[in-house]
Amino acid sequence: MARSLPPLKAVVAFEAVARIGSVTGAAQELGVTHSAVSKQLAVLEAWLGAPLFDSNRRHMTATPPALRLASAAGAALDLLAAAIDSFMPDDASEVLDVIAPATFAMRWLMPRLPAFEAEFSHIDVRVRPIHTGEEWSGIPFDVVIRRGEALQGDLRSITLLREEIGLLARPEVAASLATCADLAGIRLLESVTRPGEMARWLLAANMPAELAAGASRFGHFYIALEACLAGQGAIAAPIEVVSDLLARGDLVEPFPLLRVSGPEYRLGYAPAGLRANLAASFAEWALRTATIDAGLAAGDP
């Protein structure tokens, strides 16, 4: 017989709130935002057709029926966790879930992860790329990295790096760019997820921003970057994210003295979360790595 059960995510959120007595505490334990937990409580109340907590939500006191539900949910989740543990080898690594912007994850974070794993061999980092516009607050995470976005106050937040936007092209395309005025004769590339970057760079180069209006636009930055790598034109891109392409000579920066400042990348984690110690180690490593990269880019020994 099919079971009539509410969404598991809502049950997990409710059990944590009832057990801890606070939405904020539950959010920290689950590695999600305060609003994500509140949303799941509303989902469960709508499914049950009854309130889960007394009207004074300040103290988050569960109603008697909700207390029975929380007790049953806790016992069921414990049984589920024990069953899952039986599949795991005794020497299993500790898992750290990281969510990050797709291009940053693919081009900056993942290529550097072997260095992290060499230093912290007991931590298994699992990266979930997030696309621009994708709602991330309801996705469970231990560490979140966001571009140009302030993180909620219940997370410990550090600034990893700030982008510098430069003009990049294939060497054969850049060969035709003796001066910035030559840009009028080549195809410009831009992504809809990073609007205005080409126009800002053109203004810094004392070129009309209107040139950017004729740029070829792509749905995501990494697709526009692939078009640039295919020799289809020039792109305004974050130097930090494509540093490997510059180092290999796949792309060149014809006007390296012309750059504009871009947004910051911020890393956050819940200081009271279940994996806070692992997250803190990852945050320290990521900041150290970004600092070393910045020093190398500036020519520091």
Structure description:
- The structure is a single chain.
- By secondary structure, the protein is α/β, with parallel strands linked by helices.
- The chain contains ten helices and eight strands.
- Helix content is 42%, strand content 19%.
- It has an eight-stranded mixed beta sheet.
- Residues 6-63 form the HTH lysR-type domain.
- GO terms for molecular function: DNA binding.
- This is DNA-binding transcriptional LysR family regulator.
How would you spell out the order of helices and strands?
Answer: HHHHEHEEEHEHEHEHEH
Parts with pLDDT < 50 across at least 5 consecutive residues: none
Q: Please outline the major beta sheet.
A: 8 strands, mixed
Shape: elongated
Count of distinct strands: 8
Task: Provide the residue-averaged pLDDT.
Answer: 88
GO molecular function: DNA binding
Keywords: DNA-binding, Transcription, Transcription regulation
InterPro entries: LysR-type_TF_proteobact-type, LysR_HTH_N, LysR_subst-bd, WH-like_DNA-bd_sf, WH_DNA-bd_sf
Protein name: DNA-binding transcriptional LysR family regulator
